[in-house]
Write a structure and sequence with these properties.
It is a single chain. The chain has helices spanning about 1-5, 10-30, 35-50, 55-75, 80-100, 120-140, 150-165, 170-195, 200-235; strands at about 105, 110. By secondary structure, the chain is mostly helical. Strands 1-2 form a two-stranded antiparallel sheet. A hairpin with a 2-residue loop joins strand 1 (about 105) and strand 2 (about 110). The longest helix has about 40 residues, at about 200-235.
Length: about 240
């Protein structure tokens, strides 16, 4: 446990602490009694910290968060969010956990090796993203999903983010940041009808900050790993 807590640096403790405090305060100020909202948010914050560090534990926590978020989305008829997280994000997080565990950097199980996608993979992946989005639009329309266009945009950004995350690309964080912006709008619309959902707005504002941090940290990881690999190659020569 000591190693677990020491793995957080000062910036990570600050981001995590402020996020947790903001959600807890809003939860009790607006007299919310849906404690699964609170628990889900706390799990989500912790998951993103570990994902931002390239630690596979973050993927395990993401799986748990997806279940909580699916339940919350169902309560407001956000069927797109429910289907996306339970039917897409959760399976992809399970796949990501397996792939991350299989690709540690230099045997370090707490840091995954950063991957770079080929141009061919980028092209096929983006075509798949368009196909998934179009398909989900008609499914969500048939289900009378609340805020259809915003929900469809959430599916698109979620799919892109989950795939890039699974493939260990640093650009996963940019996709998740875009997804956070969509979700902030989505839950603001829900909060207009019921302040019960306001903690979800604060939750995704915090997620946005964590994903921005994640991109910065993964960029540093990518640079560090590339320099280490180059040094080892030069030594071998």
């Amino acid at each position: 446990m000591g190693k677990f807590f020491k793995s957080f640096n000062l910036a990570e403790w600050l981001i995590w602490g402020i996020s947790v405090a903001a959600v807890i305060v809003s939860f009790f100020v607006f007299k919310n009694n849906q404690y699964h909202y609170l628990i889900g948010s706390l799990i989500g914050f912790t998951a993103l910290i570990f994902v931002s560090k390239g630690n596979p534990l973050g993927q395990f926590l993401t799986i748990v968060f997806s279940v909580f978020y699916g339940i919350i989305s169902y309560s407001f008829n956000y069927y797109g969010e429910m289907i996306t997280y339970l039917g897409m994000s959760t399976p992809m997080a399970i796949a990501a956990l397996i792939l991350w565990l299989k690709n540690p950097y230099k045997g370090n199980r707490s840091e995954v090796k950063v991957n770079r996608l080929s141009k061919k993979e980028w092209g096929l992946f983006l075509l798949a993203a368009v196909a998934v989005t179009v398909g989900f639009y008609f499914i969500l329309q048939a289900l009378n999903t609340a805020n259809l266009i915003t929900s469809t945009l959430s599916v698109l950004t979620s799919f892109i983010a989950a795939y890039l995350n699974m493939r260990r690309s640093k650009y996963y964080a940019i996709a998740y940041a875009l997804n956070d912006l969509v979700l902030i709008v989505l839950w603001i619309l829900a909060s207009i009808k019921s302040l019960t959902y306001l903690p979800m707005v604060i939750c995704f504002v915090a997620f946005l900050a964590l994903d921005v941090y994640g991109f910065i940290n993964w960029s540093l990881m990518d640079k560090k790993q590339a320099q280490n690999d180059l040094t080892i190659q030069q030594d071998e020569e």
